[in-house]
Amino acid sequence: MSMTVKEVSKLVGISVRTLHHYDEIQLLKPDNVSSAGYRLYSEENLDTLQQILFYKELDFPLSKIKAILDDPSFDKYEALSNHRNRLLERRNRIDNMIQTIDQTNRYLKGEIQMTNEEKFTGFNFNDKQYEEEAREKWGDKTIQEANKQINEWTTDEKLSKEEEMNQIFRTFAELRTGSPDSEKAQSTVQKWYDYLNSNINYTYTLDVLKGLGDMYVTDERFMNNIDKFGTGTAQFIKEAIDIYVNNQQ
Question: Where would one find coiled-coil regions in this protein (predicted)?
């Protein structure tokens, strides 16, 4: 049974203008048009719209969504499984952040004590919001291989790896008022470099490492997250990485 654009708009809760835009950019073209020129959406069109909205919920740009849906290898069952896993990851992270906020409120009121580690529970630098940009920069195959190793970790292993990563950033934060070319700073860069190459199924060259350092200060999302360990931490890491790379070349 076909549905008009107004009926789809009412059913889904998105505007008619948005549906028209999806048609114009060929992201979602209705299967039929009535004799009067009205768009008519099929059941299959609605299934596609559902996929589009799942990807939008996960912050994918429309251009990338179109490329994914147009790919001959696209598998809607696999896509739904991936949507579910990503949303569960997001929910778990949000739950942790809410818990951290509640604990911090009690800590500020003097009701409880809170360790520095507990203050940063929920901050995860492996967040999926960066994955699409990484895919565009390094390609789907590279990211899939990198994720494969991570996805094989148990929950305890993931928590342990995340804590190891956070400890490296806490060390950088403690060192940030000193010199980035100090022995301790450079050994911490080495530890971060080793962490990346041993835990992610991707070869981080010195050039890639330098690119990451640059991104820590040019991308506000990275800088804001890293600076939660202490203002200026991101800039310090970038400078320490630059020195490390120069010394290794």
Answer: none
- pTM score, whole prediction: 0.46
What's the pLDDT score for residue 50? 94
Closest CA to 170 of 218, 127, 210, 227: 227
Q: Report how far residue 184's alpha carbon sits from residue 179's, in angstroms, rounded to the nearest whole number.
A: 9
Q: How far apart are CA 175 and CA 243, in angstroms?
A: 15
What class, spelled out in words, does domain 136-249 have in CATH? mainly alpha
Strand 3-4, strand 32-33: pairing: unpaired
Task: Please state which CATH number belongs to domain 3-70.
Answer: 1.10.1660.10
In angstroms, rounded to a whole number, what is the distance separating the alpha carbons of residues 214 and 204? Answer: 14
DSSP string, 176-213: TTS-TTSHHHHHHHHHHHHHHHHHSSS---HHHHHHHH
Mean pLDDT of the chain: 82
pLDDT tens string 65-107: 898 899 888 888 888 888 888 788 778 777 777 777 787 888 7
CATH 1.10.490.50 occupies which residues in the chain? 136-249
